[in-house]
TrEMBL record:
Reaction catalysed by this enzyme: (2R,3S)-3-isopropylmalate + NAD(+) = 4-methyl-2-oxopentanoate + CO2 + NADH
One Pfam assignment: Iso_dh
Pathway listed: Amino-acid biosynthesis; L-leucine biosynthesis; L-leucine from 3-methyl-2-oxobutanoate: step 3/4
Gene3D superfamilies: Isopropylmalate Dehydrogenase
SMART domains per record: Iso_dh (SM01329)
Binding site for Mg(2+): D221, D245, D249
Co-factor requirement: Mn(2+); Mg(2+)
Binding site for substrate: R97, R107, R135, D221
Site label Important for catalysis, positions: Y142, K189
SUPFAM superfamilies: Isocitrate/Isopropylmalate dehydrogenase-like (SSF53659)
Cell compartment(s), UniProt: Cytoplasm
Species name: Flavobacterium frigidimaris
Protein name per UniProt: 3-isopropylmalate dehydrogenase
UniProt function note: Catalyzes the oxidation of 3-carboxy-2-hydroxy-4-methylpentanoate (3-isopropylmalate) to 3-carboxy-4-methyl-2-oxopentanoate. The product decarboxylates to 4-methyl-2 oxopentanoate.
Length: 372
C-alpha cells in the first residue's frame, strides 16, 4: 500500500514524539512492503511565529490532498498566559478539524497490565477496564458564536447542535458498540441544557436501528464520577465536544499517564491521528516526553486503512517495551530511557519481533542492547 501522510509536528514535544511515530511507520513499511511518503508542514505557535497564521493555507492544502494526517501537539505558554492574544495556536487546530470535516474523535481507554500500579486509582478498580470515547468534534461551544463586550466584563460562547451533526457520530458509536460488548452510554446534561435534550432525543432515535446495543444515559457530572469509581461499567461512551474533551483527559488517569493515549479524528473523507496530550513545553528538547501515544496514533492510522496485522505488531512492540520497562520517566521515575530510546525499541522490535533473544530483558536494562 502507498500512502501520502501529512505530518504536522507542531509545538513543544510534538516534533520529538512525532519522529518516533514516523520511525515505527518506516519500519512497518520496510517489513511489510508498504510505502509511506511523509510531508511536513507548519501548524500551531511555530506557524504563528513564522507566518502569523496558526494554520497556513499551504498546510491546509496539504492536509486536504493527502491520505491521512499525523499530528503532534500545539500550544505555547506565551499564548496560554496571555488572555488578550487575538491569534492562538488552538485556532489552527479547530479550523483544521472544521475544514477536514473531522466530526468524530475516537479515544480508546485500556490500561496495560504491567502498568496497573502506575495509575493513582486502585488496581481493583481499573483492572479489566476497556472502553472507547466517541467525542463530537466540530460543533458545540468550541465552534459557536463568541461575544465579549467592549469593557471586557461580559462574555458568551454559544453552544449549538443540529440533528444531522448528532446523527452521524451516533451511528459510528453504535457500530463500534456492536463490535465490542454491545453497550453504549450517552453522556449529556439534559436536565439543564436544551442541546443535551436534543442529543438525547436523536440518539434514542438512532438507537432504534441497533436493537442489539443496550443504550443508557448519564449526566456528565455523574459520568465524571463513575469513570473514577467504576470504569469497568463502560463500553462505548458517546458525548458532545466540550464534555468529551474533559472526560477523555480525566480517563487518562486509568492508564497511568496521558502519554499513553492515542486518538483518531474521522470525517467522511479525511482522517487525522494524534496523541491526546498537549505540547508539554517544559519537556521540550529534554528527551523525556513519552512517545507511546504518538506511536499508537500511527497504529490507529494503519487500522484505518485496514492494515490490522501491521498495527498489531506496533501494539506488541509497545507491550514489550512496557514489559521490559523501556519507558520514559512519567511511567518509571528512575528510568534511564528517553523519548528516542523508546522509539528505537519499538522500531527495532518491528524489524526483529521474532528474535526474542534480541530483546533479552537483562541486556535492555544494563544498556547492552543496540537500541540504547
Amino acid at each position: 500500500m502507498n500512502l501520502k501522510i501529512a505530518v504536522l509536528p507542531g509545538d513543544g514535544i510534538g516534533p520529538e514524539v512525532i519522529l518516533q511515530a514516523k520511525k515505527a511507520l518506516y519500519a512497518i513499511g520496510e517489513v511489510y512492503n508498504h510505502e509511506f511518503v511523509f510531508e511536513e508542514a507548519l501548524m500551531g505557535a511555530i506557524a504563528i511565529d513564522k507566518t502569523g497564521n496558526p494554520l497556513p493555507e499551504q498546510t491546509l492544502n496539504l492536509c486536504l490532498n493527502t491520505d491521512a494526517v499525523l499530528f503532534g501537539a500545539i500550544g505555547d505558554p506565551k499564548y496560554d498566559n496571555n488572555p488578550n492574544a487575538k491569534v492562538r495556536p488552538e485556532q489552527g487546530l479547530l479550523k483544521l478539524r472544521k475544514e477536514l470535516g473531522l466530526f468524530a474523535n475516537i479515544r480508546p481507554i485500556k490500561p496495560y497490565k504491567s502498568l496497573l500500579d502506575a495509575s493513582p486509582l486502585k488496581r481493583e478498580i481499573i483492572e479489566g477496564a476497556d472502553f472507547t470515547i466517541f467525542r463530537e468534534l466540530t460543533g458545540g461551544a468550541y465552534f459557536g458564536a463568541k461575544t465579549l463586550n467592549e469593557e471586557g466584563t461580559h462574555a458568551s460562547d454559544l453552544c449549538e447542535y443540529s440533528e444531522e451533526e448528532i446523527t452521524r457520530i451516533a451511528h459510528l458509536a453504535f457500530k463500534s458498540a456492536q463490535n465490542r460488548r454491545k453497550k453504549l452510554t450517552m453522556v449529556d446534561k439534559a436536565n439543564v441544557l436544551e442541546t443535551s435534550r436534543l442529543w438525547r432525543k436523536v440518539v434514542q432515535k438512532v438507537g432504534e436501528s441497533y436493537p442489539d446495543v443496550a443504550l443508557d444515559f448519564l449526566f456528565v457530572d455523574n459520568a465524571a464520577m463513575q469513570i473514577i469509581l467504576n470504569p469497568k461499567q463502560f463500553d462505548v461512551i458517546l458525548t458532545e465536544n466540550l464534555f468529551g474533551d474533559i472526560l477523555s483527559d480525566e480517563a487518562s488517569v486509568i492508564t497511568g499517564s496521558i502519554g499513553l493515549l492515542a486518538s483518531a479524528s474521522l470525517g467522511e473523507k479525511n482522517a487525522l491521528f494524534e496523541p491526546i496530550h498537549g505540547s508539554y513545553p517544559q519537556a521540550k528538547g529534554k528527551n523525556i516526553a513519552n512517545p507511546i501515544a504518538s506511536i499508537l496514533s500511527a497504529a490507529m492510522l494503519l487500522e484505518h486503512f485496514g492494515l490490522f496485522k501491521e498495527a498489531n505488531v506496533i501494539y506488541q512492540a509497545i507491550e514489550k517495551a512496557i514489559e521490559f520497562k523501556v519507558v520514559t520517566v512519567d511511567l518509571k521515575a528512575d528510568s534511564k530511557f528517553g523519548t528516542n530510546e523508546v522509539g528505537e525499541f519499538v522500531s527495532n522490535f518491528i524489524f526483529s519481533k521474532d528474535d526474542l533473544l534480541y530483546f533479552n530483558n537483562d541486556n535492555v536494562h544494563i544498556g547492552q542492547s543496540t537500541i540504547v
